[in-house]
């Protein structure tokens, strides 16, 4: 994760070294060499994804393309909101990374205490996913939590309830139900202990009010107006649904014409194709895509 970019660009490599110094363990080695089992744990994957995204941002900000790539607005799905906040300048790299580490650790701890799961439901609208959850819950936690794009809604809850949702999905004419490889029932009340721990960290965090660059909030599809609202949004994120489709529709309605996905994958690029096929999305997830953007 991020190795090709760090090997090619000094500004990206510097971010990985800074991360090692801040975290006091070799995140760079885990990102570049694995093992995958360690990298995929919630406590490690969240800092790894954020640092890789920040490394790409850093090399872009020091490239000849920096001026034309300065954003008007930023957004990030779940963990990605920290990258959005960092890109918008409301917190520095060290502060964002320390919060991401705390978030990952707290979510892992909460997941270890209560066994939960998540399932992506493909091909159903919000009403039918809600009906599916109502039937499959059997008085346990189960709710729609990630409204990613038309026809893709992720449900989250206890492992047993998620298994029932997977089994019942064909009854509601879902195209398929895909269990996600996650540690727990993220974005539900089962993450309340993690939200409390993160809130304590956020109270001490250095966060500025948004200035020239706007940031749209996952939980409301509205723009953040101040630092305290950001603290509340990041806390509620852990126990509340993520309204990604509404966020993207809001940005398009407000006149955003070009979207840049920055990070180690192409997930958001794929979601945008389902949200609005006419939207222009430029993905920057590997060395080739970064080189192409800088040279264009």
What can you tell me about this protein's structure?
The chain has 14 helices and 8 strands. The protein is α/β, with parallel strands linked by helices. Strand 3 and strand 4 form a beta hairpin. 51% of the residues lie in helices and 14% in strands. The strands form 3 sheets. It has a 4-stranded antiparallel beta sheet with strand order 3-4-2-5. It has helices at residues 3-8, 10-23, 27-33, 36-39, 42-61, 80-87, 93-113, 126-137, 159-168, 192-203, 227-236, 244-253, 267-275, 287-295; strands at 73-74, 116-122, 142-149, 152-158, 176-179, 214-215, 258-262, 280-284. The longest helix is centred in the middle third of the chain and has 21 residues, at 93-113. Helix 2 (10-23) packs across helix 7 (93-113), helix 5 (42-61) runs parallel beside helix 6 and helix 7 (93-113) packs antiparallel against helix 10. The protein is globular and about 55 Å long.
What is the fold's blueprint, element by element?
Blueprint: H1 3-8, H2 10-23, H3 27-33, H4 36-39, H5 42-61, E1 73-74, H6 80-87, H7 93-113, E2 116-122, H8 126-137, E3 142-149, E4 152-158, H9 159-168, E5 176-179, H10 192-203, E6 214-215, H11 227-236, H12 244-253, E7 258-262, H13 267-275, E8 280-284, H14 287-295
Parallel strand pairs: 1-6, 7-8
Antiparallel strand pairs: 2-4, 2-5, 3-4
Helix pairs in contact: 2-5, 2-7, 3-5, 5-6, 5-7, 7-10, 8-9, 10-11
């Amino acid at each position: 994760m991020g190795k090709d970019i760090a090997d090619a660009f000094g500004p990206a490599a510097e971010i990985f070294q800074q991360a090692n110094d801040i975290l006091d363990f070799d995140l760079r080695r885990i990102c570049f060499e694995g093992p995958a089992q360690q990298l995929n744990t919630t406590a490690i994957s969240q800092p790894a994804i954020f640092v890789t995204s920040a490394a790409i941002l850093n090399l872009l900000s020091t490239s000849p393309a920096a001026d034309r790539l300065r954003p008007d607005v930023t957004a990030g799905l779940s963990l990605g909101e920290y990258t959005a906040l960092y890109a918008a300048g409301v917190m520095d790299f060290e502060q964002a990374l320390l919060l991401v580490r705390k978030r990952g650790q707290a979510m892992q701890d909460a997941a270890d205490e209560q066994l939960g799961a998540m399932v992506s439901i493909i091909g159903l609208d919000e009403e039918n996913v809600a009906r599916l959850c109502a039937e499959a819950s059997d008085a346990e936690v189960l709710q729609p939590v990630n409204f990613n794009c038309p026809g893709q809604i992720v449900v989250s809850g206890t492992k047993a309830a998620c298994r029932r949702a997977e089994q019942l999905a064909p009854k509601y004419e879902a195209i398929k139900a895909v269990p996600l490889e996650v540690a727990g029932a993220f974005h539900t009340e089962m993450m309340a202990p993690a939200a409390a721990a993160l809130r304590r960290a956020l109270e001490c965090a250095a966060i500025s009010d948004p200035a020239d660059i706007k940031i749209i909030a996952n939980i409301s599809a509205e723009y953040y107006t101040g630092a305290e609202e950001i603290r509340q949004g990041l806390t509620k994120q852990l126990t509340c649904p993520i309204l990604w489709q509404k966020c993207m529709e809001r940005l398009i309605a407000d006149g955003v014409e070009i979207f840049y996905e920055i990070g180690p994958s192409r997930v958001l690029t794929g979601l945008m194709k389902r949200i609005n096929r006419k939207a222009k999305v430029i993905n920057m997830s590997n060395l080739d895509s970064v080189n192409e953007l800088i040279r264009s």
